[in-house]
Amino acid sequence: MRLLLCIAVVLAAIGGVAAAAARHQPPAHTGPLELLAKTGKTVTMKGSVAGLYPGAAKPMVVTVKNANKFTIKVAAVKAKVAAKTTLAGCAGPANVKVKSSTKALKIAKGKSAKATLTVSMLPTAANACQGAKFTLTLSAKAVKG
């Protein structure tokens, strides 16, 4: 029984590493922009929010940095709540919602701009979510201009 448990743990660890490698997902609260100009340059986003509780809505300020040598336009910044959280019994999308930023941003070369999203914990959030950390994957579309 112990041998089977050890094998299962090793296989789970290998599967987790393989899945992480296959996904190439960015860490929590960061993410690259999809550049329609196909420049290969880096545009990054970072943001975080704290203090959520059932029924609360908090602003999450996201910094969008343009490392390109030209100005970009970003139409909206969105976030997707990951299904898995740091606590068992607390599914992300069933307990937390994110309202996207629809404010268009124009970001000069080498500069940053801020977008504000609203993160809400539903009033019906599971008790199991107390102290949970939720992963939000940020995304946006940008064009040269």
Give a quick summary of the entry.
The protein is of the alpha+beta class. The chain has two helices and nine strands.
What topology emerges from the helices and strands here?
Blueprint: H1 2-23, E1 30-32, E2 34-35, E3 43-47, E4 57-66, E5 72-85, H2 92-95, E6 96-99, E7 105-107, E8 112-121, E9 134-144
Parallel strand pairs: 2-9
Antiparallel strand pairs: 1-3, 3-4, 4-8, 5-7, 5-9, 6-8
Beta percentage is 35-45%
In the CATH hierarchy, the architecture is: Sandwich
Number of structural units classed as domains: 1
Report the oligomer.
Answer: single chain
Q: Shape, please?
A: elongated
Q: In angstroms, what is the radius of gyration?
A: 18 Å
Counted by DSSP, the helix tally is 2
CATH class (first level) name: Mainly Beta
The topology string of helices and strands comes to HEEEEEHEEEE
By secondary-structure content and strand pairing, the structural class works out as alpha+beta
Distance between the termini: 62 Å
Compute the average pLDDT: 77
Helix proportion range: 10-25%
Low-confidence stretches: 1-39
- CATH level 3 topology: Immunoglobulin-like
Give me the count of strands: 9
Quick one: biggest sheet? 5 strands, antiparallel
